[in-house]
Design goal:
binds coenzyme A, five-stranded mixed β-sheet, alpha+beta, 185 residues, 19% strand, Aminopeptidase
Length: 185
């Protein structure tokens, strides 16, 4: 992909379903996201629609015309006593790295998280007459092998990796459909 210099001044866009439908088209956005993330990334237009329509999801991107070239996703988990936000799918296209785009995307994502979930409490708390959410903990997982820790450090993130006094490890377990779901008659 050849880079247009105007991308350096493009603001990070908080993706909104109507905006995507009108300006980009869901299918086109999915194909540029696939291009951005690489081979193992799969997403159906209907799944992207669900994400963009979900108040517990935020997607932020920088575009070079219709191509998304830097992206990040936040997902709210209401887990008392502290609400958590999982940050995922942080990526800048290889031809656009080290230009400050990832930093711009993360800053915009953080600002949107604060506005929607910290101050406004997903509207649920205000609606119920409760005070704003006092604190949100953002979390992400990242492989040391990627060697990109400096990116998160520069953005103010703290690692609980092996060199920390209280290291944290991520556990995972896959739940998979072993046999096809029976079709209802
Ligand atoms: C990590 C990644 C998202 C960084 O995006 P980027 O757009 O190139 O980052 P920026 O240009 O905005 O860099 C912001 C800051 O982080 C630093 N930085 C960026 N990449 C870095 C790296 N690999 N190692 C150390 N520091 C890095 C920059 O020097 C810059 O510092 P500054 O603000 O002091 O000048 C990008 O390299 C990428 O997509 N990598 C492959 C996928 C990946 O690793 N994603 C993260 C999965 S958790």
């Amino acid at each position: 992909m050849s880079r247009n210099d105007n991308v350096l001044t493009q603001p990070a866009v908080v993706l909104d379903l109507d905006w995507v439908r009108e300006q980009i088209n869901l299918r086109d956005l999915v194909s540029t996201m696939q291009y951005l993330h690489g081979q193992n990334f799969t997403l159906l237009p209907a799944e992207l629609e669900m994400i963009l329509d979900d108040p517990k999801e935020i997607l932020v991107g920088v575009f070079d015309f219709n191509h998304v070239v830097s992206l990040a996703q936040a997902t709210l988990v209401m887990s008392p006593p502290t609400w958590h936000v999982l940050i995922n799918n942080v990526v800048t296209h290889g031809s656009y790295q080290r230009l400050g785009l990832g930093k711009r995307v993360l800053a915009a994502l953080e600002s949107e998280i604060k506005q929607r979930w910290l101050h406004d409490g997903l509207r649920l708390r205000r609606k119920s007459g409760l005070p704003p959410v006092p604190r949100i903990k953002m979390i992400l997982t990242n492989s040391l092998a990627r060697g990109n820790g400096g990116f998160y450090q520069a953005a103010g993130w703290i690692s609980r990796g092996p060199d920390d006094q209280k290291p944290t490890i991520a556990w995972y377990k896959n739940l998979e459909e072993l046999s096809p779901v029976p079709q209802s008659k």
